[in-house]
Design brief:
The chain is mainly α and about 300 residues long. It has seven helices and three strands. It has a domain of about 100 residues. It has a three-stranded antiparallel beta sheet, covered by helices on one side. The N terminus and C terminus are likely disordered. It comes from Acidovorax soli.
Length: about 300
């Protein structure tokens, strides 16, 4: 026969199980309500631009980006209310069964956080995704100017419904930062292009000025060549005139020399004639009379 102490010791594990069973159920419920931080993967088709959210892996050829989703405030309140109700029931059962287990069970619940809401599987996300895909199908029936703002608004609404307010706000902050960086890069590129264009304009201006200076120097060289040719022509003309003058002077000298020689020759002949006449003997006047002064001389007594 079992002693009362042994019997009580044998029944104590069952009693502990019965006492802790509500606490374990509460912990299971709290663990079900409180999960790890939800991760949503945004899949973007590089070819078509279609965007989809999933908690798994993206298809081949799609760009994947993990986004942390935070629950909505009403969902957090609902989970906290369920958690508090389960915790209160567990505490009541623990106080009814064994007062000492209440202090051991309470820290197990206080270490958990409320489970986050899965925005990627919410009806609002599905509706926004359907509206975005329908708008993409109607792209060919709209003009680019009309389609662009509608597409941007539908994509923003889909991101907000599928990512949650906090993740969407973080996404918008990142997008705003990217936009500012893009504007800064575009401004820097514009400044670089303006500087390059200014340098090209300056280069073309200097080239034009250099061409004009080359033309001016060419005109000056041509003018100098023309002036040099004119000076040489005038020099040749003066040389030709000088030579002609010299030739005329020489011709005049030759003519004067010729006249002088002819005169000297006539004078010589005249002198020779006189000398011959003077050396000839005087003849008698019996002969026939002769004309001229020679005849008269000969006929004189």
């Amino acid at each position: 026969m079992k002693s009362p102490e042994r019997a009580g010791g044998a029944d104590r594990p069952d009693a502990m199980v019965r006492i802790h069973l509500p606490a374990l159920c509460g912990l299971v419920l709290a663990s079900w309500c409180l999960g790890a931080q939800a991760q949503v993967t945004r899949c973007t088709d590089a070819r078509t631009g279609k965007v989809a959210y999933t908690d798994g892996l993206c298809n081949s050829g799609e760009a994947a980006r993990e986004v942390t989703i935070r629950p909505a405030p009403e969902e957090v309140l609902r989970h906290q209310r369920l958690y508090e109700e389960a915790l209160e029931r567990s505490r009541q059962q623990l106080r009814a069964g064994h007062g000492a287990t209440q202090a051991d069970a309470q820290p197990a619940f206080t270490d958990h956080a409320p489970r986050q809401y899965d925005y990627a599987r919410s009806p609002g996300c599905a509706d926004s995704r359907s509206a975005y895909n329908l708008l993409r199908i109607q792209q060919n029936h709209r003009s680019t100017r009309e389609y662009a703002p509608l597409k941007e608004d539908a994509e923003r609404r889909m991101d907000m419904d599928c990512m949650g307010p906090e993740a969407y706000a973080e996404r918008e902050r990142q997008r705003e930062q990217d936009r500012r960086e893009k504007e800064y890069r575009e401004a820097a590129l514009r400044r670089e292009n303006d500087l390059r264009e200014q340098l090209e304009r300056d280069h073309r201006y200097h080239q034009e000025r250099e061409r004009e200076r080359d033309k001016e120097r060419q005109r000056e060289r041509e003018q100098a060549q023309r002036e040099q040719a004119d000076r040489e022509r005038r020099e040749r003309e003066r040389e030709y005139a000088r030579r002609e003058q010299e030739q005329r002077v020489q011709q005049a000298q030759r003519e004067r020399e010729q006249v002088r020689r002819e005169q000297m020759e006539r004078d010589r002949r005249a002198a020779a004639d006189r000398a011959r006449n003077e050396s000839r003997p005087v003849q008698s006047g019996l002969g026939l009379p002769q004309s001229g002064w020679r005849g008269s001389l000969r006929s004189s007594p």
